[in-house]
Specification:
Layout (H helix, E strand, L loop, with lengths): L2 H15 L2 E10 L3 E9 H11 L4 E5 L2 E2 L12 H8 E2 L2 E7 L11 H13 L4 H18 L4 E4 L4 E7 L8 H16 L15 E3 L4 E2 L4 E2 L9 H8 L15 H13 L6 H19 L1
Antiparallel strand pairs: 1-2, 1-3, 3-9, 4-5, 6-8, 7-8, 10-11
Helix pairs in contact: 1-2, 5-6, 8-9
Length: 286
């Protein structure tokens, strides 16, 4: 990877994680096994990527941890996890194609050829369409634009970033947010499988998927399918900016859900609250 490309990569990670943090990194493959370490700044993250990214899958914890000794295998309640260990300033939505296109009878090379053929035949086109639909729904509800990455196989990651907040019922609140987005987008491929915070390890953005040999690049609206896939074949990163956005509205909605999460809250009631915010906003603009 060129020096310029490494500089772009550092810029991406600075915008996603900030210059310093406390996160877990996992590297490996299904055949060699996996090893976990910690990382605390973007420079070390880029160096880790440069050293390990050609031959290993790399996963990073979605949340930034307060406690340097936090262990993913440590059993803690979800509310304790968010309150004492994780900084709550982001939400992850995973959109996943549930079809399994790894064939056990094929070796690694033949599986790679098989997967690439399926991808070129637009196997993941509906996955991308679903993801962009969810993105649009998030923008309509929260008035904030999420960041989207295709992971190089059968999953897309949607990052919703906002200012740090403290919640009384974080896990219940997340549950309602997932349901709210699913209900309003009508997308059925939102994946609840890895919703628990202790399992929120995601493919490192811009790292290589060793199975498909595609890179986890950002998805963009109005991008041609072939253009998207060709982009995923290259580690090169173009100029990249995650805009700083006003998170007032999304925090207001999250706090409303949190305050009512233990009262058998219905999605219709949340939508009614959102409608009231829209009415207030329209009155301001008149």
């Amino acid at each position: 990877m060129t020096t310029k490309n490494m500089e772009h990569l550092k810029e991406v990670y600075d915008q996603l994680y900030g210059p310093t943090f406390n996160m877990k990194l996992t590297k490996g493959t299904s055949s060699t096994g996996f090893r976990t370490t910690t990382v605390h700044n973007t420079q070390k993250l880029v160096e880790f990527y440069e050293k390990n990214g050609k031959t290993n899958n790399i996963y990073i914890s979605f949340y930034n941890y307060n406690n340097q000794s936090i262990d993913h295998d440590k059993l803690v309640s979800n509310d304790k996890f968010y309150g004492e260990y994780a900084i709550f300033d982001r939400i992850l939505i995973r959109v996943k194609n549930k079809l399994d296109f790894i064939i056990d009878e094929l070796d690694e090379v033949l599986n790679f050829i098989h997967i690439r053929q399926l991808i070129h035949e637009k196997f993941i086109e509906n996955l991308i369409k679903d993801t962009l639909t969810v993105q649009k729904t998030i923008e309509e509800i929260f008035h904030i634009k999420p960041v989207i990455f295709y992971t190089g196989l059968n999953e897309c990651l949607i990052f919703i970033l906002f200012d740090e907040i403290k919640l009384d019922n974080p896990y219940l609140t997340l549950n309602y947010i997932y349901k709210l987005i699913e209900n309003n987008s009508k997308v059925t491929t939102i994946n609840y499988e890895n919703m628990d915070p202790l399992t929120q390890n995601i493919r490192l953005p811009h790292s290589k998927n060793i199975t498909s040999r595609l890179y986890a690049h950002e998805l963009k609206e109005n991008e041609d399918y072939t253009e998207t896939i060709n982009k995923m074949k290259s580690p090169n990163i173009t100029d990249y900016t995650i805009p700083k956005q006003d998170s007032t509205r999304i925090i207001e909605i999250i706090k409303y859900i949190d305050q009512n999460a233990d009262k058998k809250l219905r999605i219709a009631r949340i939508n009614k609250f959102i409608d009231s915010l829209n009415e207030k906003n329209n009155e301001k603009n008149e």
